[in-house]
Amino acid sequence: MTAPTLSSIELGDLRLRAAIWGSGPVGIVMLHDGLGSIPQWRDTPAEIAEATGTAVMAYERAGHGQSLPHPTAAWPFDWLHREAVVLADLLVAMAIDEPLLVGHSDGGSVALLHAASGATCSGLIALAAHSWVETVCIDAILRMRQNPDRFITALAPHHDAPAALFDAWSGVWTSAEFSRWDIRPQLGAIHVPVLVVQGTNDRYATDNQLTETAAAIGANAQIEHLANTGHIIHHEQPAAVTSLVSNFYDHIQHQGN
């Protein structure tokens, strides 16, 4: 696979690393999960760029990968809303107009919030995204916090501050304040096509997360339930993700013509 072009974008106090696969205007922007980074997408962005013929951009939110600043405590309870504002600013700074957003897990939540705010995008694909906090998700993360060294070791090759990142992410998800987080009432404001995707074996969500997220969006939402697939869909089913993204991108392009 062709290596991406890497850059660093300054947004106020933030310095975010971005990668672009392909050439020409960016048509697809990818948002990683709560413990994600650019390399953790593996070959998926390159394969999507090849399949669609459009440039694909992925970036690292602050505290992830090589982006700054590093967290010093748990993320604030409204961090996903704050990240949606950062995304809007980043798209303006990089002159990316009406992209298809592809967000995984927490990145999918950020994409949903971006679209619900009326900010510019042509559509979005939410891969194992969250629109409210389920007990099954809290319980899974509490179990992770019982043995953090295992996860920090796995994160270390991809992040400059893996321990701080793990603590920030797991700390907010298991906080009492965040347990009341619920963006379903906002999702009806989304007026672009949305594909909501979830694996049947996702240990961070029940099937209700898939169906209720789509129901909250309304007629603009489609559902894709992937059998025998867990939470990190692009690791378990990379070809399926590439196909879903490329087909949805083509569908949106034809709608616009």
Please describe what this structure looks like:
With 257 residues, the chain is α/β, with parallel strands linked by helices. It has one domain: Rossmann fold. Helices cover 39% and strands 19% of the residues. It is built from nine helices and eight strands. The chain has an eight-stranded mixed sheet with strand order 1-2-4-3-5-6-7-8, with helices on both faces. α7 links the parallel β7 and β8. The longest helix has 19 residues. The protein is globular.
Secondary structure topology:
Layout: E1 5-11, E2 14-21, E3 26-31, H1 44-52, E4 55-59, H2 79-93, E5 100-104, H3 106-116, E6 123-127, H4 135-145, H5 148-155, H6 162-173, E7 194-199, H7 207-217, E8 221-226, H8 233-236, H9 238-256
Parallel strand pairs: 3-4, 3-5, 5-6, 6-7, 7-8
Antiparallel strand pairs: 1-2, 2-4
Overall 3D form: globular
CATH architecture call: 3-Layer(aba) Sandwich
> Main β-sheet, in a few words?
8 strands, mixed
CATH fold descriptor:
Rossmann fold
Give the CATH H-level superfamily: Alpha/Beta hydrolase fold, catalytic domain
Q: Provide the structure class.
A: alpha/beta
Mean pLDDT: 97
- Number of domains as seen in the coordinates: 1
| Total count of strands | 8
Q: What percent of the residues sit in helical stretches (DSSP H or I)?
A: 25-40%
Percentage of β-strand residues: 15-25%
Under CATH at level 1, the class stands as Alpha Beta
Q: What is the gyration radius calculated from CA atoms?
A: 17 Å
Return the string of H and E elements: EEEHEHEHEHHHEHEHH
Total of DSSP H or I helical runs spanning 4+ residues: 9
Q: How are the strands of the largest sheet arranged? A: 1-2-4-3-5-6-7-8
* Poorly predicted runs of 5 or more residues: none
